[in-house]
Please model this.
Amino acid sequence: MRKFDNDNEPDPFSAIGLQAALIVNKLRLQAQLANIDKEHDEDAGSESDASHSKEQRGANHSEAVAHGVKKIIAFEQRARGKKSGSG
Model:
């Protein structure tokens, strides 16, 4: 009897770890942004304070994105069996 196997589709389990890392990072980022929004609501002040808060939020978002990218790169290196560290 012939075994039917669809080898044309990618292995669905190869990227599960990466997808899990992306989801966790997205949830952490959303939690950080929610905390920033709460702080902003508590500190509602003049228009200059609002613009400063937007700049700070943008800086925090950039830092969070950079951190998430570094974590993903480290994860991919571990998955490939490479040493993490310099790079």
The mean pLDDT is 75.
